[in-house]
Structure formats: C-alpha cells, structure tokens
Amino acid sequence: MAKMWAGRFKKELDSEVNAFNSSISFDYRMYSEDIKGSIAHATMLEAVGVITKTDYISIVDGLSGIKYDIESGSLQFDMTAEDIHMFIESELTSRIGDAGKRLHTARSRNDQVALDMRMYLMSMMSDIKDQLCALITVIADMATLHTDTIMAGYTHLQRAQPVTFAHHLMAYAEMFLRDYDRADDSISRANSLPLGACALATTTYPIDRYMVAKLLDFDKVCANSLDAVSDRDFCLEMSSVLSIIMVHLSRFSEEIILWCTSEFKYIDLDDAFATGSSIMPQKKNPDIAELVRGKSGRVIGDNMTLLTMMKGLPLAYNKDMQEDKEAIFDAFDTTSLCLKTFAPMLASIKVNVKNMRDKASLGFINATDCADYLVGKGVAFRDAYKITGELVALCIDNACDLETLSLSDYQRISNIFDDGIYDAISLETCLCNRNVYGGPSEEQVSRQVSILKNKLKVMI
Ligand code: ARG
After folding, report:
1. In 282-433, where do the E strands start and end?
2. What is the CATH number of the domain that holds 404?
3. SS3 383
4. What CATH number did the domain enclosing 254 receive?
5. How far apart are CA 377 and CA 456, in angstroms?
6. Is 104 a catalytic residue?
7. What CA–CA distance (Å, rounded) separates 267 from 274?
8. Which residue of 27, 31, 109 sits with most ligand 1 atoms within 8 Å of its CB, as the best mutation to test the pocket?
9. Is position 277 annotated as part of the catalytic site?
10. pTM of this prediction exceeds 0.90
C-alpha cells in the first residue's frame, strides 16, 4: 500500500522495515472505534465550517460502508498497511475520492490513536466489570449454602482458628468487589477526550472539542495537548487493575489446587473442569486453576512491559508507544478469559462438608478459645495462653485433642477448669462467639452475604 507520507521521501520503504513498523496486525481490532471517532470528527468539522455538508455526507456514508464491509467479511485488512488508521483513511479515499482526503484536517494519528485506545479499553474494562459481577454472584450463591460449614482457617498454612467455608469464600468476594471499584475508577480517569490535541500542539482551525466529546460520550476534554497525545497512564492503570485481579484469581486458584489434593479433600472438581494424565490412570488434575495461576504471570509481565516502555519517553508522542497495544490487549484478553473460565469452574465444585469439619477438629484450632475460657474466669491472657500451651503439649503426648482430653487432665494443669470447658471449645461455640462485625459467625456472614447480594443488584 502506498504511504500517505510518501511525498517527502525519495525511496520506498523496505518491505521488512515496513513489517517492523506496521501495527495493523494487532491494532485492526480498533477499527470500530476508529470509524466512530472519525465520524464524530467529521461531524464537528462540518459544524464549524471546515468541510462542506456534501463532503461530510460522503465521509459518513463511506465510513459506514467500510464498517459494514469489514463486519460482513467483504473487506479484508491489508496487512501491509502501516496501521488501522491509515488503512481506513486510504480505503475511504479510494471509495469517495477528495472528500476522504479532507477527513484528516485538524487531526493527527497521534490524537487519533490516543482516542481509539481510550474508547476501546474503556469498553474492554466494562466487560471485565461484568465478568467480575458474574464471579461475585457465583461466590455469593455458594456462600449462602455454607454459612455453617465449619472449616479450619489458616495462617502460615497451619491450622489456626475455626471459620466457615462461606467466610473464606466471602474474603474473595471482598477482593473482587474492590477490583470492580478499581476497574470503574480506571474507566473514569480514561474518560477524557484527547482528540483535538492533533500532533502535539492542537490546531489553527476553529475546532469544537466539546462537541466531539459529547458525540463520543466522553465526560471531559484533555486539558493539555502534549499530555493528551503522550501519556498512556490509562494503560498503566488498567494493566495494574488487571494484574491485581489476576493476583486474586491466582491465590484462589492455589487454594482450589490444594483443596482438591488427597491431603485436603475439601472439594471435588467437576469432571468438566479437570483433566486426566496420559500415563497415570488415577489422576484428575486441576489444570484450569493451574493455568489461571500461571497466566497471572503473563498479565503482571504485561504491566511491567508497559511501565518500562513508558518510563524514559520525552514528551510528546514517540513511536515506542505503539508497543502499548500488544501488552494491554494481552492483559485484557488473558484476564477476561480467566474470569470467564474460573467462574463456572467454581460454581461446579462439590464441597466435602464432612471432611472439612473433620479436618477442622484436628490441629487445636480451638486453643485460643480455651485460653479465652480461662480469661473469662479471671485469668490474665498471658497466663491463660501458657496454661493452654501446656494442655496442647499434654494432648500431643496423649495423642488426643482438646475435645477428648479428660477433665482430670485439664484440672491437673489448672484447677480453674470445670466441665464447661467442653462447650466453650466446641467448634460451633468458637464460631458462634466470633460474632464481631467482619467475623465468621453464621449471623455475621449471612448478613454480609445479603449485603453483597443487594450490592450485586445495583452493579449488574
Ligand atoms: N500506529 C501508531 C501507534 O500505535 C499510530 C500513531 C502513529 N503516529 C506517528 N506519528 N507515527 O502509536
């Protein structure tokens, strides 16, 4: 394809250099935003008297036809074109002639690409918000069923204190809710119109940037033309939002992988979301969760690519910035794929309630409650802590646990104990007594689940 800027050059671009320079193989996906932006630009140019009504009409007809032909498959992207912007403009000119050559008045690819990227990524981020809602809905539905499913809570991956499966799940709901807010926030900061900045210093034509902003549904207009064409902080911010989502998904995946080991057996994966081994017939592997965990590295890497690409660039536009696309598109594609696969996988797991409860009885997760029982009888916490430590050591020697240690053994360590200790350390009591806002008691978690369900009603 002949270059639009060929006038200043004496030689044709070497074909390998052309391929190196070209971005159409990955920026073609912004064709719809590019056309929408061009139609808004042409509408404004006509309104302020820079182009005639006749030219305006043929530009809009031409661009609409191009969009139609791309979507119906009758127009293929030319992979030798420099980028999607050049491709559409030259296709337009070949269809409508001189009017097509007037479209780029008072515009540069620098503000055009910044516009397309903002529009495209805002819409991708809004899809991510929907996918987060779908995942949070799965969590809320599952939590509703498990507010009394007792499970060991861990610190250092050692059994620590009793919680419920619902409480554990709801921790992830909180993380994904914050992710949703961050996604929303990143959209609001990207929502500013760069068009009109032109190459770097606006234009001498009497353009109306507010009109274009209104036509394209932007809340604001970028206030500094150099900033408008040269920052990609919306990409940095969005890729960091996506990285955080992936970190949350990755931690959740790690737990799912652990929970379906024979050692834990807290859950079983549905056959539709697990795979077998080519050699070991007994295997049922949690590949989906492992892939989500693995792909988090990719998205974090994309974030690093973008930060590193931007950090040394002088104002204003530099071609380095063309490198923003593959990284940010990959971050979006990967995160979206993971969210879409993870949610139904989670919805399909079978929870082994009894096994979770049985495992929770091991490992002295009620030791803090034993100490609290003594505190309730007037013992200072540090003394109570020491007495309970001795009881745990005694249990280990006797190969029993606090529930099965005899009252006489309790009283051998401290005569303050009476048979009320057994009720005080039952896991049900331990949970019920943790009835503090944010705690794992059935009452607290049920309340949190219904708050969450109400939030989801306005989010979806
Ligand atoms: N394909 C380019 C990019 O993605 C478009 C902007 C080109 N601008 C320029 N002055 N060469 O960044």
Report:
1. 350-351
2. 1.10.40.30
3. helix
4. 1.20.200.10
5. 44
6. no
7. 13
8. 109
9. yes
10. yes
